[in-house]
């Protein structure tokens, strides 16, 4: 039925003897016929300008208009990537050239801890402000420095245990 | 099945596959003849998928442009119609996915204070068979039904356009026809 072919002789024989199947078959055949007949009625005429629009769009595509649109986008993205990398490199260079802050003396630290809130504010004005702010940051920086030192010594001991001496001798720059 | 509109005399005798082959060799006029041949069928097929004439016309334009850009991929061993309808179907699916992601604000419909069963009965009697099918069937059942009986495609061609296998198309058609038949029987009994 789906292929539009007639049913086999065997099925025809069954249909003659079975009223329910015959009814079902006839109904389906009628439905298929009506669907095919009514299909054009369910269609509409497209706008008279549509063909012109399609042809114009196809001609534009033939000239390569829309296909070349991606080329400027690629160069623009490449430029953006290059400028991002350059900006990162400059920022990294500036950070590396920053002078290391001089650590505050133990005397200054003790003084800051002993002062009350108002006194700290007074002390924090004028020439002492920089030293005061450095003293507040110092515990965190010291802690970070200690962690870094621990990590370095761990890597050194691992390298000494697992990397063959001959390899280390050949690549002296790695041990420095 | 829809009747094909006339094309220019030079290309009149040529099959769609021959026109596509000429287009592969760079003949733009051949493609314009293909547009003339399939414009109406494609627009109506798309209208059935997206349910908007304006969108269907816009999508038909996209379909033909895509077909032109990819004409070198067309294999003349297969039917051009099936190839073109497959592009149209994919274009409609992409449109549907894009439309789903945006919120569409539609004005509220007027409230019909009549008995819903009366309204439904009136609607049922007035609408054609394909309108009934649209209302009763699932979208893929309706698409299979339209391609097979509206467009006159074979089961194999329908399967190709729907990007599925023949067995699935047979199942979709069987269920669609049964649902329609059940509805028509109950409608006849109630009258």
Polypeptide structure, described:
The complex is a heterodimer of chains A (176) and B (191). In chain A, helix 1 (9-17) crosses helix 2 (19-38). The relative contact order of chain A is 0.03. Chain A is built from 9 helices and no strands. Chain A folds into 2 domains: 9-66, no CATH class; 104-175, no CATH class. Chain A has 176 residues and is mainly α. Chain A has helices at 9-17, 19-38, 50-62, 70-96, 106-114, 117-123, 129-162, 165-170, 172-175. Chain B is mainly alpha-helical and 191 residues long. Helix content of chain B is 72%, strand content 0%. In chain B, helix 3 packs antiparallel against helix 4 (53-69), helix 3 (28-50) packs across helix 5 and helix 4 packs across helix 5 (80-100). The chains are: A mainly alpha (176), B mainly alpha (191). Chain A binds chain B through residues 2-3, 24, 27-28, 31-32, 34-36, 38-47, 50-51, 53-55, 57-59, 61-62, 66-67, and chain B through 1-3, 28, 31-32, 35-36, 39-40, 43-44, 47, 53, 57, 60-61, 64-65, 68-69, 128-131, 133, 145-146, 148-152, 154-155, 169-170, 173-174, 177, 180-181, 184-185.
Number of helices of chain A: 9
Total strands of chain A: the figure is: 0
H/E element sequence of chain B: HHHHHHHHHH
Largest interface: A-B, 32 and 44 residues
- How is the CATH topology of the largest domain in chain B named? Rna Polymerase Sigma Factor, Chain: A
Distance between the termini of chain A: 84 Å
Q: How many helix segments of chain B? A: 10
Task: List the domain count of chain A as a whole number.
Answer: 2
Strand content of chain B: under 5%
Report the CATH superfamily of the largest domain in chain B. Answer: RNA polymerase sigma factor, region 2, helix turn helix motif
- Assembly type of the chains comes to heterodimer
- How many domains make up the 3D coordinates of chain B? 2
Radius of gyration of chain B: 19 Å
Summarize model confidence as the mean pLDDT of chain A. 75
Helix content of chain B: over 70%
**Helix and strand composition category of chain B:** mainly alpha
Q: Provide the succession of SSEs of chain A.
A: HHHHHHHHH
